[in-house]
Amino acid sequence: MTERPIIILAALALAAGVAAGAFGAHGLKRILTTDMLQIWQTGVLYHLIHALGMLAIAAFMGRSFSDGLLGWAGLLMFVGIIFFSGSLYVLALSGTKWLGAITPLGGVMFIIGWLLLALAAWRAH
């Protein structure tokens, strides 16, 4: 994967993250319990951090780093956003507790993505 699709996905993820944050702050504040709103905000935080991580990964591509590893790192962060933040958004809105089993899968994808970035840097010439 090249940097272009990662940048596009990151920009779309950032736009969605900002929208989710605004929706939580303005639209859900009166609807959700404090606990559920906190879950929503955790989803937004990790969503935005990892979308920015995707931009950082794209910035490193083409610079003596293993682009294959970086492509996987960017993709894993994007899928991690869907699994981690997405499951927290649905949990906050629906109260469906079994989704808590999906959230850690997204966290593992985040961790592997960061480790792939470290490995790419380690292998850089």
Automatic annotation (TrEMBL):
Transmembrane segments: 44-62, 69-92, 98-122
Superkingdom, natural source: Bacteria
Main location: membrane
Pfam families in alphabetical order: DUF423 (PF04241)
Keyword Transcription found: no
Keyword Nucleotide-binding: no
Record's bilayer topology term: Multi-pass membrane protein
Compartmental location: Membrane
Record keywords, A-Z: Membrane, Transmembrane, Transmembrane helix
UniProt cross-references to InterPro entries, sorted A to Z: DUF423
Signal peptide from the UniProt entry: none
Similarity comment: Belongs to the UPF0382 family.
Name this protein carries in UniProt: DUF423 domain-containing protein
Source species of the chain: Mesopusillimonas faecipullorum
Lineage: Bacteria, Pseudomonadati, Pseudomonadota, Betaproteobacteria, Burkholderiales
